[in-house]
Amino acid sequence: MLSFESTKNAQLKLTNEIKAALIIIGGIFLFLLGFNFLNGTSLFKHENIHHAVYDNVEGLQLGTKVTVNGLTVGKVSTIDFLPNSAKILVSFTLRSDVQFPNTSVAELYEASLIGGKSIAIQPDYTSARILQDGDTLVTAVKPGLTDVVTQQIAPLQQQLERVLVNADSLFTGINAVLNQEGRDNLSTTIADLSNTINSINGVAASMDQLLDNQKGNLTTTLDNVAKISANVNQLSDSLAKSNIKQTLIAFETTVSRLNSILLDMGQGKGSIGKLMKDESIYNNIEASTKEIELLIKDLKEHPKRYVHFSLFGKKEAPYEEIKNE
Question: Cα-flanking dihedrals φ and ψ of residue 78, to 5°?
Answer without folding.
Answer: -140, 150
